[in-house]
């Protein structure tokens, strides 16, 4: 039933033909930069040392505050040049692992330009009644810089500096769907979806922590931050149909499709938590 969806996702996640160079901080890989972007970064000679096989920080940028300040300047310059997506005024903590000491902090709009590893928290909003399961989906606002007008998970957002996955979940659940904090905290982490995907604004290197949240049958989501155009409550059979849609107003984002597909695979199998590398 999901052959079309799997084929679409396989195409979207196919390895890029572009060559990438690691962005290094000492021995740690902080990101991945393609050749065209590496050439642009070479003009920031006081910030980067660009070699044929890697991009490194200048030797005098020896600690996190210095690198963060330098990256703030670089990101602002790239934004003025039109090289980044919409400015978020929100910084990501860039490190070798989630929760590790940061190598530097980076404006969210520049995350894909530098191919840094980001983390996100999503929710499958579920309602169970009469022995059947239904799922809430959200349609992204047409004003969104990324994937406007496409269907999405009920809740989803990046883990910003200073927030844990759990805190991000509570924050995004309220802003995107008016889910009270006490209810949002009942969400159960179930899957990890890993993505490395070439995008027009760089490399998306992201881990999505996918959660299931059972909602009251009479729950009706309301958006608070203007990022959602509408909500739809659909049966799982309709979810399957929507996963197979491409190039229409029913198309899901790749991220949401991966999260939903992981959920469907899981409930068709053991129901246990799994780690699912898609690329």
What is this structure, in a nutshell?
The protein is of the alpha+beta class and 279 residues long. The chain folds into two domains: 20-115, Transcription Regulator spoIIAA, CATH 3.30.750.160; 118-277, Nucleoside Triphosphate Pyrophosphohydrolase (Alpha-Beta Complex), CATH 3.90.79.
Description:
The chain has helices spanning 3-12, 35-41, 64-80, 165-177, 181-184, 236-243, 254-268, and strands spanning 20-25, 28-34, 48-50, 55-57, 91-94, 104-107, 117-129, 132-140, 151-153, 155-158, 188-199, 202-214, 228-235, 274-277. With 279 residues, the chain is an alpha+beta fold. It folds into two domains: 20-115, 2-Layer Sandwich (Transcription Regulator spoIIAA); 118-277, Alpha-Beta Complex (Nucleoside Triphosphate Pyrophosphohydrolase), CATH 3.90.79.10. Strands 7, 8, 9, 10, 11, 12, 13 and 14 form an eight-stranded mixed β-sheet that branches. The protein is globular, with a radius of gyration of 19 Å. The two termini are 22 Å apart.
């Amino acid at each position: 039933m999901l052959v079309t969806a799997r084929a679409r996702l396989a195409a979207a996640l196919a390895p890029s033909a572009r060559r990438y160079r690691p962005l290094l901080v000492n021995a740690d890989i902080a990101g991945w930069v393609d050749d065209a972007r590496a050439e642009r970064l070479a003009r920031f000679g006081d910030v980067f040392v660009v070699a044929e096989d890697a991009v490194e920080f200048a030797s005098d940028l020896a600690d996190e505050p210095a690198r963060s300040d330098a990256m703030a300047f670089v990101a602002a310059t790239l934004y003025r040049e039109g090289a980044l997506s919409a400015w978020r005024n929100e910084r990501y903590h860039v490190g070798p692992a989630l929760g590790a000491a940061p190598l530097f902090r980076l404006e969210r709009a520049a995350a894909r330009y530098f191919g840094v590893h980001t983390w996100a928290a999503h929710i499958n909003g579920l309602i169970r009644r009469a022995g059947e399961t239904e799922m809430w989906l959200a349609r992204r606002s047409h004003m969104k810089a990324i994937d406007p007008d496409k269907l999405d998970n009920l809740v989803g957002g990046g883990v910003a500096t200073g927030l844990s996955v759990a805190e991000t979940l509570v924050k995004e659940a309220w802003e995107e769907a008016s889910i009270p904090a006490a209810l949002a905290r009942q969400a159960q982490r179930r899957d990890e979806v890993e993505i490395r995907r070439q995008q027009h604004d760089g490399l998306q290197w992201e881990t999505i922590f996918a959660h299931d949240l059972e909602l009251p049958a009479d729950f009706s989501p309301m958006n608070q931050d203007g990022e959602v155009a509408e909500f739809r409550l659909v049966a799982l059979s309709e979810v399957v149909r929507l996963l197979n849609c491409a190039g229409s107003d029913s198309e899901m984002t790749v991220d949401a499709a991966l999260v939903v597909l992981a959920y469907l695979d899981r409930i068709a199998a053991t129901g246990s938590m799994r780690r699912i590398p898609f690329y």
